[in-house]
């Protein structure tokens, strides 16, 4: 069976571990809105998190970055910044960003290829030659896309600065997906949607991960039109995000942080929306009848990815729901 | 006393340790022909060697790069190259180059500033805010200059590739100082030559270090015209270079690897050359009368920079010669 998954970082990557273990032919369309250029290197956090996770290189403790990582370069950059001060260009050092040495090698190599004209999709394919993730990993687009966040203070910052530096503690009033309008889907992306037997929205951030993928022209249209069933798994369990700070993103676009509100945000495909089916956690079972009344195929199953076994069961449940 | 020194990397940097200890006002004009862009970062080996040496950050063992250096990023890049193979862009990895993690931080920061339009001279000043070398360190030029080497095989390679990767084992037939003709001296360089009380050519490579500095339009002219005496120290002791592979460079331009041939290569200033005085090692004392006959002020003194004391004595001897 051909399964196509729209994935963000940590949550999507964990889900993919479970899905992969079912032995299907999996294509992942990865979010690139978190991508950022720092110190001249192009960093693709979500693609790399999927790649490292499925390639068994991810830090188990952090869920992002590399296992056995060191931060020699970053420490040295910080030493420079402290010694020279703001008047001497210290602000060029992004001390708040967790740039590891092993991770930096990935970015340096990708950036060098990109300067030579190699598209991001081909860079990703090359990097995956090492990591052998067992899935086909595609960026949503080869065109540069960056999610910018409008803050209640009036400032606009890159998503990474809001998410990592400010820990989403400053209220966001909206998101701009810079570059999305001019972007085109990367080679293979649209085919992977039309040729899929099932399309899955894993428990990734519906706004800044899956939402950004859907903003690439052609992708939402293909999901509307494909014959494959489209199912999703709620990233909200018991009125709180399973991981991360998805509530801060949902609030900014006026969507309540509940398992059923996210489904309604995507909308039911029969009524011009994006999904046919939706899984919520057993703790949210009460929302199932309402979703069914609205035309969703919906079910409550355990949605906590505590280990590979539970994650595999979730993946299986999503495919079962799709088969209905 | 204001002393201006034209310096390459290791030899020049060590000499400067001795000169600095004499307490004069020292300006260093550093070679930039070794500079190279790798993986998108601008590497300035000679400037950094001077900066790290005088800033007490140099690897004592190697003479270049940082003390306590690690090579995590390079090892990881090499792991990529080995895993993905040539068809997947592995050739973008310069595994032959000793790119350390601490050193990389310097390059990343400098490159980030340069992308923002900050000239190399200002980048160097900022980096020196941390290292406090106790001298004014200027690049010969803010314009990019790169020494390329024509090989007997017909290929032309960047100096670094010849020097580091091939260890100068493949015969060079000539050097091209790419960018030199269009270059201008960096701010402060010409003034440092006209305002100096003494100009010193330390025992740096006469071809690819001092020779490249002299190729920047205006620098040789200023040395011809300045009222300051110009003295040099032979990088050749007993018919062999003190360090490195200067013989391979001298051969390529048809200069014998002897202490007096290098002086004659520079030429006596009274006859349109570049230097007034020349120090050779005591082992080469026999060449002194010939140099004197040719119009050089010449003397034989110990020229091995084994410790700070001997290096300081060399620096002192060069200033004494200049005062004659």
Keywords:
homodimer; 324 residues; alpha/beta; Rossmann fold; 7-stranded parallel β-sheet; 3-stranded antiparallel β-sheet; 13 helices; 14 strands
Describe this entry's structure for a reader.
Two copies of one chain form a homodimer. In chain A, the strands form four sheets. Chain A has a seven-stranded parallel beta sheet with strand order 5-2-1-9-10-13-14, with helices on both faces. Chain A has a three-stranded antiparallel beta sheet with strand order 7-6-8. Chain A has a two-stranded antiparallel ribbon with strand order 3-4. In chain A, a hairpin with a 2-residue loop joins strand 11 (236-237) and strand 12. Among the domains of chain A are: 2-33 and 135-143 and 183-323, CofD-like domains (Rossmann fold, 3-Layer(aba) Sandwich); 148-176, no CATH class. In chain A, helix 1 (10-20) packs parallel to helix 2 and helix 1 (10-20) crosses helix 13 (308-323). By secondary structure, the first copy, chain A, is an alpha/beta fold. Chain A has helices spanning 10-20, 45-54, 72-84, 101-115, 120-131, 159-165, 189-194, 210-214, 219-225, 246-252, 259-266, 288-293, 308-323, and strands at 2-7, 25-30, 36-38, 41-43, 136-139, 146-151, 156-158, 172-178, 198-201, 230-233, 236-237, 240-241, 277-280, 297-300. Chain A is built from 13 helices and 14 strands. In chain A, 38% of the residues lie in helices and 18% in strands. Chain A binds chain B through residues 39-41, 70, 72-74, 76-77, 79-80, 83-85, 88-89, 92-93, 101-102, 104-106, 108-109, 111-113, 115-116, 118, 125-127, 129-130, and chain B through 39-41, 70, 72-74, 76-77, 79-80, 83-85, 88-89, 92-93, 101-102, 104-106, 108-109, 111-113, 115-116, 118, 123, 125-127, 129-130.
């Amino acid at each position: 069976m051909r399964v196509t998954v729209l994935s963000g970082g940590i949550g999507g990557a964990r889900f993919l571990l479970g899905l992969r273990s079912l032995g299907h032919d999996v294509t992942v369309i990865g979010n690139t809105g978190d991508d950022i250029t720092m110190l001249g290197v192009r960093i693709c956090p979500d693609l790399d998190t999927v790649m490292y996770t499925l390639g068994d290189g991810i830090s188990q403790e952090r869920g992002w970055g590399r296992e056995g990582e060191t931060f020699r370069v970053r420490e040295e950059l910080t030493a420079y910044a402290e010694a020279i001060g703001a008047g001497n260009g210290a602000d060029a050092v992004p001390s708040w960003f967790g740039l590891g040495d092993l991770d930096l090698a990935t970015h340096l190599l990708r950036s060098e290829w990109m300067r030579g004209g190699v598209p991001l999709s081909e860079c990703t394919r090359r990097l995956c030659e090492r990591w052998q993730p067992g899935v086909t990993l595609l960026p949503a687009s080869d065109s540069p896309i960056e999610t910018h966040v409008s803050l209640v203070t009036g400032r606009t910052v890159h998503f990474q600065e809001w998410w990592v530096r400010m820990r989403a503690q400053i209220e966001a009033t909206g998101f701009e997906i810079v570059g999305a309008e001019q972007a085109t889907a990367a080679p293979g992306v649209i085919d992977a949607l039309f040729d899929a037997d099932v399309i899955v929205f894993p428990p990734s951030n519906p706004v800044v991960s899956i939402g950004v993928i859907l903003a690439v022209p052609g992708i939402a249209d293909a999901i509307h039109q494909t014959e494959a069933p489209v199912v999703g798994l709620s990233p909200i369990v018991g009125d709180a995000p399973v991981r991360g700070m998805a509530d801060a993103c949902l609030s900014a676009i006026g969507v309540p942080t509940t398992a059923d509100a996210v489904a309604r945000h995507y909308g039911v495909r029969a009524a011009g929306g994006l999904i046919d089916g939706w899984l919520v956690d057993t703790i949210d079972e009460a929302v199932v009848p309402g979703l069914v009344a609205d035309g969703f195929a919906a079910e409550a199953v355990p949605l906590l990815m505590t280990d590979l076994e539970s994650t595999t069961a979730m993946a299986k449940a999503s495919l079962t729901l799709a088969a209905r």
